[in-house]
Amino acid sequence: MADQTTNNYVTDGKIGVDLTATYASTSAGSTSLFPATPNENVSSNNNGRFIFAKAASEVAQFDCVIFSTYENSASTTAPIAQAVPITTTNANALGSGGATIGFAQSSVTSGYYGWFMLNGTPRVSLLIGCQPKSMLYTTATAGKLDDTTVSGCLIGGLVANTSATSASAVFCMANNAHIQASNG
User: Fold this and answer.
1) Is residue 145 within a helix (H) or strand (E), and if so which, with residue range?
2) Which of 92, 119, 146 is the last residue of a domain?
3) What average pLDDT does this structure show over 89-100?
4) pTM as predicted
């Protein structure tokens, strides 16, 4: 079976969007042109949705990321969503404010821009022995999720389709993934 991550393509009429490409910042004098405005969303096949955002630190392929909007927050331009690999620590700090959760289908170097999947069938890095069709939680390992319960760090709107027999990236179903409010 072909790797579905290479088969994601834009379906909403945007021309020239490569969902696997990354882009350096477009500072003064740069010849790099963005294919979209930061924070812009595009639709893809398989009911997918991607956001164009900046990596605030190194993001590995298939990492689960959490977004914050610190870039340009003091300027007159709109804040730019920044992705960092999710951990229990940053989920507790950022998640209570309704932070967005996404999934890197390509590696994105720190300071670069790329496309992060929000909805659809992303591949997501899970820890060893994570079971399918169970609730997924953050871990202390950046970008990786597991089925081991962590109070207050349940990722709602996400389910793994298969088990992770080794630490691997498995296909999941994502529908507006978010930090689920804790009952305790």
Assistant:
1) strand 145-146
2) 119
3) 80
4) 0.86
